[in-house]
Specification:
Blueprint: E1 2-3, E2 6-7, E3 9-12, E4 16-19, E5 24-26, H1 30-33, H2 43-50, H3 53-68, E6 72-78, E7 88-93, H4 104-117
Antiparallel strand pairs: 1-2, 1-6, 3-4, 4-5, 6-7
Amino acid sequence: EVMWGKVYLMNLDGSSIFLRNGDVEDYTGFIGGVLKRPPKGSERVTWVRDEGYLDCVIQTSELIANIAHIEYLRVDIWLNIGDPNGCQVNEISLSSGYAYFGHEKYMAKIWAKPLETKLYKIFNSTKPVHLLTREDSNL
C-alpha cells in the first residue's frame, strides 16, 4: 500500500503484514487474527524480509506511484524466488479490499492529512498516466 509516494505496509497473502522498518505481523492464528495481537512473523513469511525481497517491492511500488502521481494505490507484486531484485508487477489497484488488521485508522490519517491541509501539488500533464515515464516525473 503506497500513500503519497511511500510504502506504508506490504500485505502477503492477506494474513501477514510487513512494515517498512522490517517488522512482520502474523495474523494467521487466533492471537493475531481474532485478538489483534499479532506475534512476529514465522519462518513461513520472514524469508521475504530476511532474504532481501522487500527492497525490490518497496522500490518498485514507490516508483510506480511517483511516476503516476497517485496519492494512494496498491501494487500487487510477484516475487521471483532466488532473485530478490527480480520482482515483477502483477497489477495496480486504486482501491483495496484487503483487511489491514487495525492499520486502517492510521492509513486513513496518512492519506487524508495532505488533502485536508492542501500540502499536495497538482501534476499537470496532457499525457495519459499509462504513458508517463521517469523523465516526465523528474525521477
